[in-house]
Specification:
By secondary structure, the chain is α/β, with parallel strands linked by helices. The chain is about 45% helix and about 10% strand. The strands form three sheets. The chain has a six-stranded parallel sheet, with helices on both faces. Strand 8 (about 270-275), helix 11 and strand 9 form a beta-alpha-beta unit. Bound molecules: 2-acetamido-2-deoxy-beta-D-glucopyranose (NAG). 2-acetamido-2-deoxy-beta-D-glucopyranose (NAG) binds near residues 217 and 336. This is Glycosyltransferase.
């Protein structure tokens, strides 16, 4: 959101952007607790609540809603202070229940959708099929789902877990219906990368205007630490396109058994590697991973010594700086949308190992539709705690590093994506159009 805001003010210097941020999950949790307490005090118990705690899915909208009074106050104060005319609200893709707050102010809403256009098309399609034809995606079982914006049907095994769970999908429907009430959807993608899905979105019924404005990336990252400098120095010594890079996102970590399979696959493949290996967080599936004091405690005996010449195991890594390095030949990734765009930006072919959220869908898009990734797995789900075998991963790494067919396509997309935000590029034009729309909003 901040990167997008920077881009917008850079293009249009009379635009003023105020960011309203729900600071942290713990603040949010505190707000939910207060909200829930106030409800509990006011409400008579309903028959169906069984006295249990509301589920996280049921909690989500109240959690967002509980912030409304403070946001109303903050917006009023900011308008009074600046004397600026309110042109519109750009809402986070999960905060759509703020729509009516924008309405109170008489301002239009837009969404910033931080995944790709194909996934947006999919989400709209699932909701529309549900509302108009009574289609229930949770009943899909082993089948596949034809969806506009994709050239082939989506297998159920790559549909996000949240869509396959009745409670969560109800929230997806609510959010998606809200998308349709907005004046436009900004998407972190590039026309040349997802032209097929974007065209389908522009033809779909009751779909607001979609603005592809990407790639919105933060390639500078944080200030580099000593170990990061050492990593880059190590990469400097490796031959061009010779190193496979493994990194699974800010929430990506595996238990011991899986770690040993990965280690064995790396040794077996014989390829040079840089591996971001992180310790699973303590306290539930959403606890953030941390770095190991000493990775030896989870790696097979002697692994570091045997691979000292060809590999490096790190904790947190400066991913963009690594992907930018010419020695990197392939990226085994969880396929988060940021990581996907970074890999495309730097023209590094990918191997897919999704974990959660819409990552399985992204993997499908990369392997089947765009053909810029090879498959380790498209359907891995971190909650399954399934173990991907060393053989499977080794096969994936070999295909990634030894079969060059995807490299050319990836390089082609890289050039196109890099052009998008330059003067006259597709995303630049989209941003200009969006600013034009916002400037004309007569309130
Ligand atoms: C994606 O990248 C942006 C920077 O452009 C960053 O602020 C955001 O936290 C990243 N999202 C995730 C899920 O890592």
């Amino acid at each position: 959101m901040v990167e997008l805001a920077k881009l917008l003010v850079h293009r249009h210097s009379t635009l003023v952007i105020s960011l309203v941020i729900i600071t942290s999950p713990s603040t949010a949790t505190a707000a939910v607790t207060r909200y829930a307490d106030s409800l509990a005090a006011a409400a008579t118990p309903r028959k169906d609540d069984g006295g249990g705690q509301p589920s996280p899915a049921a909690n989500f909208t109240p959690m967002i809603e509980s912030h409304k009074p403070r946001i109303r106050e903050a917006v009023s104060a900011e308008l009074a202070r600046s004397g600026a005319r309110l042109a519109g609200f750009v809402l986070d893709m999960l905060c759509t229940s703020m729509l009516d707050l924008a309405e109170e102010f008489g301002a239009p809403s837009y969404i910033y959708f931080t995944s790709g256009a194909a996934f947006l098309r999919f989400q709209l399609h699932v909701q529309e099929s549900h509302d108009e034809e009574g289609f229930d995606v949770t009943e899909l079982k082993e089948a596949e789902l034809a969806c506009p914006g994709l050239t082939r049907p989506v297998p159920s095994k790559v549909i996000p877990s949240g869509f396959l769970n009745k409670e969560w999908v109800a929230l997806v429907y609510t959010i998606t219906r809200n998308f349709r009430k907005t004046k436009g959807i900004l998407v972190n993608t590039v026309r040349e990368l997802e032209s097929y899905a974007l065209e389908s979105l522009s033809r779909g019924k009751n779909i607001p205007k979609v603005y592809p404005v990407g790639p919105i990336l933060n390639l500078k990252g944080e200030k580099s630490r000593r170990e990061d400098d050492e990593t880059i120095e190590w990469l400097d010594q490796q031959p061009e396109s010779s190193v496979v890079f493994l990194c699974f996102g800010s929430m990506g970590a595996f238990r011991g058994e899986q770690v040993r399979e990965i280690a064995s696959a790396l040794e077996g493949s014989g390829h040079r590697f840089l591996w971001s290996l992180r310790r699973p967080g303590e306290g539930g599936p959403w606890a953030s991973p941390t770095d190991y004091e000493d990775v030896r405690e989870v790696l097979p005996e002697g692994f570091l010594d045997r691979t000292a010449e060809v590999g490096r195991v790190m904790g947190w890594v400066p991913q963009a700086a690594v992907l930018a390095h010419k020695s990197i030949g392939g990226f085994v990734s969880h396929c988060g949308w940021n990581s996907t765009l970074e890999s495309v930006w730097f023209g590094v072919p990918m191997a897919t190992w999704p974990m959660y959220a819409e990552q399985q869908f992204n993997a499908f898009l990369l392997v089947e539709e765009l053909e810029i990734a090879t498959e380790v797995r498209m359907d891995y789900r971190s909650e399954s705690e399934e173990v991907v075998s060393a053989e499977e991963l080794e096969r994936g790494i070999r295909s990634l590093m030894e079969d060059c067919s995807r490299k050319g396509r990836m390089k082609g997309f890289s050039d196109l994506v890099r052009g998008a935000l330059t003067d006259g590029g597709s995303s630049s034009s989209s941003i200009a159009e969006f600013i034009g729309d916002v400037s004309n909003n007569d309130l």
